[in-house]
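User: I want to check something. If I give you two sequences, will you return the structure for each one separately, not as a complex?

Assistant: Yes, each is folded on its own. Here is the first sequence with its structure:
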Amino acid sequence: MNNVPVFTNDTIVFGLLTITLGFIFYTSSKKDGFWFKFYKVVPALFMAYMLPAVLTTSGLIAPEWETVNPDGSIEEHSSNLYFMSSRYLLPAALVLMTLSIDLKAVFNLGWKALAMFFTGTVGIVIGGPIAILLISMVSPETVGGAGPDAVWRGLSTLAGSWIGGGANQTAMLEIYGYNPKLYGGMVFVDIVVANIWMAVILIGVGRSKEIDKWLNSDTSAIEELKEKVSTFSKKVERNPNLTDLMIMVALSFGTVSLAHLGAGYLSDFFADFVNGIQNQTTKNVFTFLSSPFFWMISLSTVAAILLSFTKAKNYEGAGASKIGSVFIYILVASIGMKMDLRLILDNIGLVAIGFVWMSIHAILLILVAKMIKAPYFFLAVGSQANVGGAASAPVVASAFHPSLATVGVLLAVFGYAVGTIAAIGCTILMQLVSQ
């Protein structure tokens, strides 16, 4: 990432991203002509993800870049927009979208949601070793390496990320001691493959009715939940005044503030607890508990669920979930700008392993969904709760309906909990096939 982008100022980049989103919403609102036909095929949410990636690929913006100082030293720079979106806007969106949740209806979604989540986990666990076997037949050197440079050690970090999240990924790096100098290549594969898979899922959202028909799935529980929230929203609907808007800002960002405060204390407490565990494997299994992001998302969601039992839920009528959706779209754009499509060719071997791996994950999800007649919603969110974690599972869930964002978060929390254990199982299998 040595090329300095045209625009390095986050204020300018943020403006470009919002202009992009404005363009997408303006064109997708057309009722006839080219854009009407275009958005019947390509969902607006997918465009909100891909256009920022095009801006990054063209060199206009970048998530990270390097400059050379006069003394010859290299200085690293990065955009803070994804950090801002994931730490401020995502939890605020979860609060606003969860205010009107019907918790009983969420639990009525049944066992198929969990079944698809765990299917996604199994797909990642078996996908890694199968990918190594298949690629080794074509390019043995791609999956080779010895000691800390062994490719299977690096792939263990992908397993941690794709089942749990960042904390699980770091735990796997610690457990298997992959060469830190090579780690950047694995992070790149993580970003490219996971983001392209998310793009595929978003395209599927636009065709979910046809997919559900092919899967012969029963979507009645999901439709019932959406109907309940829509009916409630219409019942309390009103034209929001300035007081309504300011109270919603206070509720959302006030909750985010308290969640960050609580996350700081809890992550420190559990960091001490985890560091006190003598058994190294057990210690790394619980590493996610020391992650401030995990606690921040969990506390925001719990607080929002509690608020849904108060009069605060009536703010759905003033457009709470619409404001939450604005925050989600900004987050999607900031995720999209992390992907530079030019870099795929830089490490084609590792990227190929990633694509084969993700394909196995996808095929298993499709087979099980077809077998148990699970709706595409469960397939998409079950996959993203594994691969994308708490940052993207609610994005995909809310693409179906804002009221469903919480389902994505709840499943992503499962991912954090089982991430390291499942990733260790995957790595053992990858080590065996590598040898």
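And separately, the second sequence with its own structure:
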Amino acid sequence: MPPLDNLRPGGEAGDGAGAGSAATVGGTSEDVVRQVERSSGMLASRAAARMSEVLPWFSAMSASHRAGIQLVVQAGISSFVEWCRRPEHARQLSEDVFRVAPRELVRAVTFRRLVDLVRVAVEAIEAEVPNLAGPQDELRLLADVLRYSRDIAFAGAVVYARAAEERGAWDARLEALVVDHVVRGEVDRALPSRAAAVGWRNPPAVTVIVGGAEGNAPEAVVDEVHRLARMAQLEVLAGVHHNRLVMVVGGRFATGSDDIGRPDGVATAGDAATAGGPSGVGAQGGAAPDRLLAGEVHTALDAARVLLPACGPGPVVVGPVVADLTGAPRAARMALAATDVVAAWPAAPRPVQARALLPELALAGDADARRALIEEVYLPLRDAGTPLLETAGAYLDFGSSLEATARALYLHTNTVRYRLRKAAEVCGLDPADHRERFILHVALVLGRLDGVLSTGKA
């Protein structure tokens, strides 16, 4: 920083340093610099007293934090003395001020409060300038104080920016660790506390959503997930595993829409015909995206639709809804398993519930999916009476033909229709819909096999 005299028109570096005057160092004379050095303790005390008067939150801080701030002010005044003597090292000297501060002081004092502290300290020192320098040096010292306060403000900004970057990197690593524990199925007492450390607020319902993550950097993908979640007022923990984006999502989800047959928001051919819309299993329903972004996320599928723009190409699978984070590994296991088999259903909607893929999971050898189909479809039909189970089985075996089923069972076609309606009420699957008919067929086959394998005879 050139001396202030050099900036004056027609002035020279030696102006004002005539016979008997002290030499100038930087912009302020050495005598004034020594006077500031001798008065550093008094200046720090005046600045701290001024902070207590002007800043209401300063007095409310703990004694250790107030002492730390006063230590920084004292170091700042000492650094100002060196700054005047060595202006070529201004940046290094101003950054050294914050190295004496305790590390926790950065967390206790926000950046906005730091700006207030610098402003009040500078005002307190400015008030003492007439007592530190004579009339010929007063303006020069005041200009140096103002320039030094600018350097201190920039140095403080660098400290807080570095702390924010370190905290962001630590949060990202901790978030990735939590998601990794969920994917691995490792649940321990530390999992909720680790999640809380990155801002997880223990929502009343949790699900796991798995999508693609190809084409973008993992950090950019996770940032986009968090941005979308904030807009929809959702809790989220996200991580990229290989080419998959795994999102642990929390909110106020309804838990009663996990039907096997018809995924929430997917219209059957009959529904579409009634509504006058397009037919087909792959048609998507649900609320409009702008309503979802306004915080009206009612189901796990709604949450998936909100986060859909962050996912890469390919299917997006939604796991079952669980009560809290400790149940997330079970939801993740089912969502990941369903992602592996979703290719077997080319017409699957996007997003799709994992439970809608139970027949594919069962055919792939998933024991839980096999047991779910038997317990939720086959056993209710069996317990409802032989006519319903026999009629549903014959209807599927004879290619969904009412006439062929009626002839095989020696029944009237209206009787077959009645029994099929009763069977649909019992198991929740409509044989008239081709997707639900497929699920029903797989469930009946698994139930028959289970009866043969458990008894040894048909």
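Because they were folded independently, the notes below concern the second chain alone. The longest strand covers residues 205-212. The radius of gyration is 36 Å.
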